[in-house]
Structures are given as C-alpha cells and as structure tokens.
C-alpha cells in the first residue's frame, strides 16, 4: 500500500525535468543514507579490541587447511570487497558454486550469502572456514589450534573477550571477524545527495536515478543498501538461462523459493563484476538490460542503460582508512599445526 | 685481511661480559643500520606517482592469467613479506620450486631471487608475471592489455612516466612495482642499537648478538641486511640433504656455483618460516642449528641456539604505514581481457 502511494506520488514528481529538491525527496522515499555505524547484536557488541583482532583474522590464511586462503582472498577490500571472478578459488584452486558477494556494507543486509542461509555476519563467518572447497578446515578444532599456540593471539583474544575463561573458541573467531566487518561502511556521493547535497550527483547520474525509480528497479533495490533487504525470484518474466541454481529453495525446501535469491546491494556494484549468482555476466550494462527484461519485463534503450550505469557509479565508496590498513600478523610457533596440502 | 683484524679485535672485546659500548662498536664492524631510503637506479628515480602506481600493481591480480595471483599473494606484507609456505601457490594452485623470499628490504641486496638471476628489483618484477607456475601470463602484451582499457591506469601511468609517449609498457609496470618495493624498509630495534641505543636490545638478545659474531655467522650474514650481500655455498661442511637444488649453477653454469645461493637477509627472519631455499624447515631454532653445523662445522648448545633466536627477534620491523594501506583498484571495462582459467 505504501509503495503504491509512493508510486502515485512519483507519477507527479518524477520526470526528465524533476527539480533537484523533488528528486532528493523522491529518492528518500526509496533509499536511506548509510548509518555511521552498523548496529551489533546484543551478544557481540563492537569493541576496538574485537575489531583489531577481527582484522587480523580476516587476513589469516592459517584459518585455511593449506595456509593459503583467507577471508580477504575472495573478499578483497581493494576491489569492492570481492575477487572479481565468476566463482572464487578456494583450497587447492577448487571453485565454489556461486559468485562471492561483497563484504562491504554486508552487515546492513537482512541475511548473509546469496540464499540468506546465515542470519548474521557471525554465522556467515563460520561457513567458509569449514567449507571443503573454500578454506577447507577439517574441523573447528584445527582452526583453534592454528591460533592457540601463538602468544599474541592468546593475548588479543583475552582482551577482546575478557569475560570468557577460554576465549579462543570458534564462535569468538567469528565474532571478531564480524566486528571488523561491521566497520566496512563505504559512504558514497549518493549518500550526500540523499542528505540534501544536490550537487553530489551529475546530471546524467540524476537521470539514472529517475530511471531506476520510474522503471521499477527500486521495488527490490531500495533501503540503505539499495538492495540486500529482501528475497526475490531471479527471473520473474522468464527463467534466466545462465543459471539453474535453485537458490533459497536449498535453504527452505519450499517450492516457491526456487530460483529465489537475496537481492544484491547496489553499493559498489560498479566494482563487483562479474554479475549474478554465478558471475556469468561481466558487463554492468548487460546486467542492467537483463535485469530490466527478466525482472520487470521492460526493454531499456541504450541511453537508459547508460544513465542507470552512471547512477550506479554514485554508489561507490571506500571503507575507512583504519580498515584499509593491513595488520601485522604474528609468526607461528613450533607448536602451530603446519599447513596440509592434501584435498 | 679486514675481517681478520676485526676478529682479533673481537677476541679482546667480545665475551659474555662485553660492555654495551664495546658491543655496539663491535656490531657496527659487521652490520649497518637501515638507510632512510633505498637508492634507486638512474633510469628509475623514485617518485610518489610511481610508488602509488606500483602499490596498485603490487596488488593487481589482473597481472596474472586467471586474475587470481598478485605479487602480494606470495609476498604478503602482513606476514614478513612472504606467504609462510614451503613453496608458493601460483596459477591454478601450481607450486613453485623455491621458497618465496621476502620483499621487505629486498632492494638492499646485491641481486634478486635465491640464485641472484635478476640484478635489480625492476628485473625481478618481470619474472613471476610470465612464469607459467606463478602468475602465468602468456605474454607481456596481455599484461599490458589488462591495464590498457582502464582509464585510471591510463592516467596514472601517464603521471608516473610523463616523458613516455606510450607509458603503459611492460618495463614501466616493473619500474612502478620496484619503486613501491623500495619503500618497504622495516626499521628495527637492532637499528636503534647500532645507532647507539644500548637499551634497544634485551640482555638475552645481546648474548645472541655476541654469539653470532663469535660463532662466525657474521662471515656471511652481515651488512645492512644482515645477509643479502653475497653468494655462498649451502652446505660447506657436508651437503644439506633436504635439497638438491643446484642454485646459482643454473645461472652461471659454473661448477663452483653448484648449491650456491644468495645469503638470505636476517631482517624479519623470525616471521618468514619455513626456511631454506625449499622451505623444508619450519622451526627457526632448527634452522640455526643446521646452519651452524653445515656452514661453520659448529655444534651449538640449546642455550646458544635460544640466544641467537632471541637476537634475531630484534631484527623485526614493519613497513611504513603508507605501504601498509591497501590501494583501491579501478574496475575493469568491457574491453579488459577477462581471466583465463586454463593452464
């Protein structure tokens, strides 16, 4: 009902000649600027000690079987929080089944992974470490052992989890990583625009913004992430031939969740090619065209596609400097279990 | 002659009770503190533009065939400038033949690679990009093409090499990377000690310093890198059974270069396990014991090994903050050649 009201409003307000204050007001009906912090769950409040430890663990290849894969391998902060590969390389160059989603602003979403199978960043972080084609750890225990005999980790876990008698536990590894990931907010020019700075977007970007509203993209790509807030069927007007991934059906086993995925965020989408759940499309403009066709049954002109791509560039932003500074990781000790290069 | 004079001096000066000023003076006979900058070759003067571009290229997986390996993959600044693996993983998880040497302070050495086959950082940087088991680029041309259609690289190469009509050339990729690498100096407590701060080392570290002098380790591990200044046979008193690598012989084809390698630097050696040209030894203390035995024919006591290991910790240092800050890499364009996942 609310959306229909807004769409009626839109019929009056939006046009190729919408005035800036109108467009800002209209945009605020669909989108929200980035918050200053991502709220943490009650059982894992963000602290500087956890963030610092989490950053170390984010780069910690010793959390992988062969000491060769870390969170950062697939979620590279230099490249939009992804690896720019169709699917990622894990232990011994095994390939995963889905395109790595961005870690940037990920904590703003309703859930994690393409199929939403993890309700929180904490739950998400526990997955890839044990996934046999990703970091491939044979057990939680080995992950703990890899850190346990390193004095600096002993000390840092103690400081990050001062109430725990034995702080180096698998759940705390995930908690620290999640705390670091909550710092990965990327303020953009579009946020400035939403907050009232009409000059933050170019004329072409504003045209693109009007188009994503008028075309209906904002039905799904909305809110603080411009996506990440709901699940939707991929291929409402015809199946997308590039993928047979049943998506969220694998989580719920509900027929109506077949080919349903979490709507990806638009934030930094210009940096996260290739696109879609299987990374099958390299060109952002082709992705825009396909989405309009199979989700909204609309054929966009080349000019419309160009303007929408222009607009999406206004959603680019970088994580804070502190997050972009590499940690110095402590050396292993003779008691640290060595890497295992078997599959 | 000079060394004999110094060793005579040592007989008087060095003992378990050497006074601090004596030990500082003695240490300065063998070692040199880190310079403020690493001198650049005349044809590649260091500039801020080259350093910034070089940092981007250092993290650029698009310089590898499968868009999955960068300089940083094997020479990780978070972990002593290495990957802490016996041998590195390259394209499609292929393994190299030798342990990755540290990039930290690498420009201080007489030459690059274990066998010294590259005379400069510039020449070194050109190797792994084209090595079929490392970054596996099939041609210099593809490396150039991967960058050529990205407007930000066009602009940055132009600014870094303003006199070149076509600045995006293979040699300039290497020049920029080398310029960045020249910033990777890691000042340590030992440098403070050499400059006169007796309190910079602990009592045990000073004992270790006396031991490396007395035992003769400093015959090879000396100068500004505490190594990196000469070639030596690995296994002077008996062949090291862990390796049949002919070393520098492969470069010179001179029989007397069989099993000869560049002496590795001690700087950050505490962070760069596993040790030796094939990464066969994980424990620093075992490496110390083996080296004393096969290079100097000396059996060290456990206590002596412990003190030497203590001393080596005083050579730990971190690259400057600017080098530790990750670059933001520009997105590919539809004209950028995509990754190739074939061998």
Question: Which short descriptors sum up this protein?
Answer:
mainly alpha, two-stranded antiparallel sheet, 343 residues, homodimer, 38% helix, globular
In short:
Two copies of one chain form a homodimer. By secondary structure, chain A is an all-alpha fold.
Described by the principal axes of the CA atoms, the overall outline of chain A is globular
Query: Approximately how much helix is present in the residues of chain A?
Result: 25-40%
Query: If you average the pLDDT of chain A, what whole number results?
Result: 95
Please identify the oligomeric state.
homodimer
Q: Beta-strand level of the residues of chain A, as a percent range?
A: under 5%
Radius of gyration of chain A: 21 Å
User: Based on DSSP secondary structure assignment, what is the total number of beta strands of chain A?
Assistant: 2
Listing every helix as H and every strand as E from the N terminus to the C terminus, the arrangement of chain A reads HHHHHHHHHHEHEHHH
Q: Give me the number of helical elements of chain A.
A: 14
Briefly note the structural class of the backbone of chain A.
mainly alpha
- Biggest sheet statistics of chain A: 2 strands, antiparallel
Largest interchain contact? A-B, 34 and 34 residues
Unreliably modeled segments of chain A:
11-16
Distance between the termini of chain A: 53 Å
Strand order of the largest sheet of chain A: 1-2
How would you characterize this protein structure?
The structure is a homodimer of 343-residue chains. Chain A has 14 helices and two strands. The first copy, chain A, is mostly helical and 343 residues long. The first copy, chain A, has a two-stranded antiparallel sheet with strand order 1-2. The first copy, chain A, is globular, with a radius of gyration of 21 Å. At the A-B interface, loops of A face loops of B.
């Amino acid at each position: 009902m609310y959306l229909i009201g807004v769409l009626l409003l839109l019929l009056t307000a939006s046009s190729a000649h919408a005035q800036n204050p109108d467009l800002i007001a209209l945009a605020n009906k669909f989108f929200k600027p980035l918050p200053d912090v991502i709220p943490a769950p009650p059982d894992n409040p963000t602290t500087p000690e956890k963030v610092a430890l989490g950053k170390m663990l984010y780069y910690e290849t010793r959390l992988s079987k062969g000491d060769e894969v870390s969170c950062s391998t697939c979620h590279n902060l230099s490249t939009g929080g992804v690896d720019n590969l169709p699917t990622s390389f894990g232990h011994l160059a095994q390939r995963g089944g889905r395109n790595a989603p961005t870690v940037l602003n990920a904590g703003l979403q309703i859930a994690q992974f393409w199929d939403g199978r993890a309700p929180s960043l904490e739950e998400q972080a526990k997955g890839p470490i044990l996934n046999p084609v990703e970091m491939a750890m044979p057990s939680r225990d080995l992950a703990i052992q890899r850190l346990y005999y390193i004095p600096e980790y002993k000390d840092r876990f103690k400081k990050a989890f001062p109430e725990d008698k034995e702080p180096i536990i698998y759940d705390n590894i995930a908690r620290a990583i999640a705390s670091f990931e909550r710092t990965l907010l990327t303020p953009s020019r579009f946020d400035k625009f939403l907050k009232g700075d009409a000059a933050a977007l170019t004329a072409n970007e504003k045209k693109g913004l009007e188009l994503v509203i008028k075309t209906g993209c904002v039905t799904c790509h909305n809110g603080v992430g411009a996506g990440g807030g709901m699940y939707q069927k991929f291929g409402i007007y015809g199946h997308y031939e590039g993928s047979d991934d049943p998506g969220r059906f694998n989580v719920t086993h509900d027929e109506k969740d077949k080919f349903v995925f979490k709507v990806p965020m638009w934030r930094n989408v210009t940096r996260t090619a290739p696109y879609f759940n299987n990374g099958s499309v390299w060109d952002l403009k082709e992705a825009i065209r396909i989405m309009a066709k199979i989700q909204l049954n609309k054929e966009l002109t080349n000019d419309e596609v160009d303007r929408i791509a222009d607009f999406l560039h206004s959603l680019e932003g970088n994580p804070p400097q502190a997050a972009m500074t590499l940690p110095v990781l402590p050396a292993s000790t003779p008691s640290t279990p060595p890497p295992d290069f078997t599959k």
